[in-house]
Specification:
The chain has 122 residues and is mainly alpha-helical. It has a single domain, classed as Orthogonal Bundle (Globin-like), CATH 1.10.490. 66% of the residues lie in helices and 0% in strands. Helix 2 crosses helix 3 (38-51), helix 2 packs across helix 6 (78-94) and helix 6 packs antiparallel against helix 7. InterPro entries: GlbO/GLB3-like, Globin-like_sf, Globin/Proto, Globin_bac-like_CS, Hemoglobin_trunc.
């Protein structure tokens, strides 16, 4: 699937496009400890590449993803989830993938976003 999505260049574009949106988002941007989103962009790219069968750099550098645990310090409510999904939708759509590849990638991202919600408070 990594190759069908477009390999490293596609995942680089995906992460860059996603974080262009996050950079100006008043709900999501405060969740990132670094002023420069570059490190977060790299982590997302590496994670997604590894998940979809590409290089295993994420695991080699950071260990098991433990997504819920890594996101636990942040208040991720339904509004934050929907903002994350909106930025990610634009990023995925920008890749202009074949429909089956697009839908498979989007299905995973949507399920992952729902799984990260850890509060229903504002």
């Amino acid at each position: 699937m990594w190759a069908q999505i477009g390999g490293t260049p596609a995942f680089e574009r995906l992460a860059a496009e996603f974080y262009r949106g996050v950079a100006d988002d008043p709900v999501l941007k405060p969740m990132y400890p670094e002023e420069d989103l570059g490190p977060a962009e790299r982590r997302l790219r590496m994670f997604l590449e590894q998940y979809w069968g590409g290089p295993t750099t994420y695991g080699e550098e950071r260990g098991h993803p433990r997504l819920r645990l890594r996101h636990q310090p942040y208040r991720i409510n339904p509004e934050a989830r929907e903002r994350w999904l909106a930025h990610m939708r634009r990023a995925v759509d920008s890749l202009e993938l074949p429909p089956l590849v697009h839908d498979t990638l989007w299905d995973y991202l949507e399920r992952a976003a729902h799984a990260m919600v850890n509060t229903f408070e504002d």
